[in-house]
Fold this sequence. Notes:
Distance between the termini: 12 Å
Low-confidence stretches: none
Order of helices and strands: EHEEHEH
Structural class: alpha/beta
Oligomer: single chain
Amino acid sequence: MNEIKIQAVCGFGCGSSLFLRMKIEEVLKANGLSATVFCGDVGTCLSQQCDAIFISEELSSRIENRTKIPVVVIKNFMNKTEVETKTLEFFKSLTNN
Length: 97
């Protein structure tokens, strides 16, 4: 399998998406997983090649029905447990396919 690419998305691609990217990278490192995590904005995220989009609940409705890749909704970017659980669930889904 090629390197997994995860896009962390927020409204403009430079604020909360950076925070979310760092949290996802912490989870990956702590669990011995590897992926490229990069930031994006909600307006252009669907044009970026990736394997999953991690996005806030508020913005998810703008893209969920417009893509075939997994959209992982994070309700609270500050909640380490939520980010960890959803990141690990995404990786587990890759092995189930």
